[in-house]
Structures are given as structure tokens and as C-alpha cells.
Design the sequence.
């Protein structure tokens, strides 16, 4: 919809950060942006650095994510650099139980910094760092050596990111009219409308069919962004 952007990330790969930055530039070409929906649903994660880069696009400063572990050099911190690419435009991040790992890092960072509203269902809860340790030339063992934590110190592992607004994923279904209801047009001898209105009715029906197939969570996110803009001073 005009003035409201939508970016979906299916997986975090090495080039995801620059790609999202480019997508923001494309949105800005169409005029001022009033809100953005970042869709991380069913995103299984991917490259940690990509998650850090995407988070950094929307944060002015501060911690993005950190790790704590049991072995030497397992502790890491990642912080944001100055500059919010959207200049504090309202954001909603969509998540669900299929959002894991890097997706949860982004959602957790934006939630803790109050930069975005998280909408959907609780995420998967994969917040562990795994390290491959060689045993011999042909054998190795993979161990969980550290855990990811959000800026406020919340562990992602097995807990996930709980959304600010809980909305189950569903579709909007048009409710069928009551078969026993009677309107003026159903009465014998009612006045006919001009043919032009028949075309208008067809257009309205087509719009309703399109709405019926709309993603409910996405629709709720858009309504939320519009409400934020209405209430903004």
C-alpha cells in the first residue's frame, strides 16, 4: 500500500544486509514512508553477521546481540553503528514458530530497543552457538559452546521471542450473507438501479474477494501502523 513498505526475508545469507538496504532505497523512491513491515515468518535463520547488519539498519546505537559460553573466546558482542536508515519510521516485525536463530536475533534486538513492535506468535527458540571440535584427522564433535542473548539479557535458547501483540496466522474469510435476510432488491417490483451501478457492484465484489485472501497477520500489521500514524503528534 502507498507509503507503507513491506520487506520479507526468507533466510539470512551473506548478502542479505545490502539487499535489505537496497530495498529501503527503492521504497524511498516512491515518496515518504509512513511505516514498514519486516516479515521474518518461517525464516530459519542463517548467517549471524547478516542478522547484525539488518538490525543495524534500523538502530541508532547500542547492543544488538551478545553471546556467553563455557569455553575461551566464546563471549562476543555486536553493537549498532549510528544512523537509522528509516529515520525512526514506525515498524512492525512479523514472526511465528518458524522464525529461528538469526530471525530471533533481529526481532529481539528491535524489540528490546523499542524500535519495532513484534507481532505474531512465539518464535522457535534456537539461540545456541555450535562449535565443531576436531578429535582426529577424520573425526570431530559438534558442541553447543555458547548462547545468544538479546540486548536486555534475555536468552533466546528454548524461550524464543514472545511477540508484543499475539496474532495467530490465518486468512480473512468473507462471511456469507444470511439466506433468510430480505433487502429492497429482493422484493417484487422494486426500482431498478442504472446499469452503471451494476458495474460498481462487480468491482466491490472483486475487492472483497481479494480481501478474503489477504494474510491476516499482515493486514493487522498494516492497521497497527496506520493507527500509530493517526495517534502520532
Sequence:
Amino acid at each position: 500500500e502507498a507509503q507503507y513498505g513491506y520487506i520479507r526475508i526468507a533466510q539470512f545469507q551473506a548478502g542479505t544486509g545490502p539487499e535489505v538496504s537496497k530495498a529501503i532505497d527503492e521504497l524511498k523512491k516512491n515518496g515518504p514512508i509512513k511505516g514498514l513491515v519486516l516479515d521474518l515468518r518461517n525464516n530459519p535463520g542463517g548467517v549471524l553477521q547478516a542478522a547484525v547488519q539488518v538490525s543495524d539498519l534500523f538502530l541508532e546505537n547500542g547492543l544488538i546481540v551478545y553471546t556467553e559460553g563455557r569455553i575461551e573466546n566464546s563471549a562476543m558482542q555486536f553493537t549498532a553503528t549510528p544512523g537509522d536508515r528509516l529515520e525512526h519510521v514506525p515498524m512492525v516485525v512479523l514472526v511465528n514458530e518458524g522464525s529461528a536463530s538469526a530471525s530471533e536475533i533481529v526481532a529481539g534486538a528491535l524489540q528490546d530497543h523499542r524500535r519495532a513492535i513484534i507481532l505474531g506468535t512465539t518464535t522457535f527458540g534456537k539461540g545456541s552457538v555450535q562449535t565443531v571440535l576436531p578429535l582426529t584427522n577424520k573425526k570431530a564433535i559438534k558442541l553447543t559452546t555458547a548462547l545468544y542473548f538479546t540486548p536486555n539479557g534475555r536468552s533466546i535458547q528454548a524461550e524464543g521471542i514472545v511477540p508484543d501483540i499475539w496474532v495467530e496466522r490465518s486468512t480473512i474469510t468473507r462471511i456469507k450473507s444470511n439466506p433468510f435476510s430480505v433487502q429492497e432488491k429482493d422484493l417484487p417490483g422494486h426500482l431498478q438501479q442504472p446499469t452503471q451501478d451494476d458495474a460498481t457492484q462487480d468491482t466491490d465484489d472483486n475487492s472483497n474477494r481479494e480481501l478474503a485472501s489477504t494474510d491476516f497477520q499482515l493486514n493487522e500489521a498494516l492497521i497497527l501502523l496506520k493507527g500509530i500514524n493517526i495517534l502520532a503528534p
